[in-house]
Amino acid sequence: MIKKWNLLCLKNKSKLDIGHRLLYEPYKNLIIKFLELCTEIDAKDFDPISKAFDGLLSIPDELKEYYEALLGVTSFYQHSQGGKGKYIEKKLASSYETSTLDIDLSELPLWLENPLLHHKLGIFTFGGLTNDEKQEIRLNTWDWIGPKNVKIDVGNILWDENAIVMIELKNRIDSGGTAARREVWTSEKFGVFANYLISNQKLFRKNNIQFSLIELLSYFKIKTLEIYFGILFDTNDKPATLERDKESGFFITSREGLNYLKNIFEKDSDISIQKYEEDTLYFEIIFRTNGLKVIFGALYGNQIPMKLFRKEISISDLLLFRYDDIWFSQLLAINERMILLKHRTNFTKIFLNLLKEDFLLRNLFNQLINNECDEISLTRVVEYLIGKYSQRFENKFIPEAGKTLDAHIADIVQLVASAHS
Fold first, then answer.
1. pLDDT 10s digits, 139-185
2. pTM for the full model?
3. 354 and 281 in one domain?
4. Structural domain containing residue 272
5. Which stretches of 145-245 are assigned E, i.e. beta strand?
6. Between the N and C ends of the chain, which has fewer C-beta atoms within 10 Å?
7. CA distances from 340 to 38, 43, 173, 364 (A)
């Protein structure tokens, strides 16, 4: 019995929202490489040292091809970034047009002046901009004259509140350990902001007029600056909570970081400490001279979209799309590469050759792609292949015991269609 898998790369890319498109290209690139590993023996080779170290020279003959295929496919995947590194930040930033990611302090004026452009720059990088947009960035009229730049992962402008929210994100409670947390709260991230706010040092210049951080915020009518340390998930893949962070033992480092910031600000007579909650990691001050409110704190799980967008959104629903592309294509590639190494051919190569030989099959396959591989189109292709070419598909090329001919052909068709669509 054939199985229709939930594959993102079989969907029409032009109809996908931006959140899905962030996954589409990385998934597509990986699947194309998996297809290459299914069909080209030389797509992955092991040098003599690797063969000895990985055990390829000593493994029993009956397992050799499977083990080599397993190493070849999984080693490629594990070494490929595949879009994983910035996916979470990009998904968050894609939710609102005033939000963005990779916010350099030096680019703060650009973001405030043109949030749509910075939003696009953060998500698609410089290469994803039009020529006019690239020129607009090159001709940005704001100069950075500060001594030390600092970057925050994601942020949003709340114009109706005259507020900026910026969050330095960690995927899990234990991400980076105590050293990474200490750097965020002190010398590498939040401490830099704190010192610039206290010193009122000139950091920006426009038309020969210099601005400190506070003056820049005032120029753009920003009355509240919120800077948070955000943790998305606990070690059980559930939304992080303050309680779980305390249980993990890392909470103490964040508390020490909050104390570090408090010690900086409480020495300034222009600053009024409005609230300091050590147990919940929240610190709020107001500058008496200009009324600027600054908040430092920590956010956990579902608190992150609440503060960033002022909306109650499940962090799991916001970030996690459940598609079969990666596990399905990777496991299938391992099996197909094993057969390729053993027999110099497999169902994937056979199907690709038949596509070259048979116009009617190409037409059915094209319809399948246009229909986003619905069950009817998939069944038509599989039935056509078995009805006309059953002698080309030998049972010994089915790698899994008990798997039927039509089920394996259906899987191959979906893999190839995912790469070709």
1. 999 999 999 999 999 999 999 999 999 999 998 998 878 888 999 99
2. 0.79
3. no
4. 87-313
5. 151-158, 163-172, 202-206, 209-212, 224-233
6. N
7. 7, 11, 43, 26
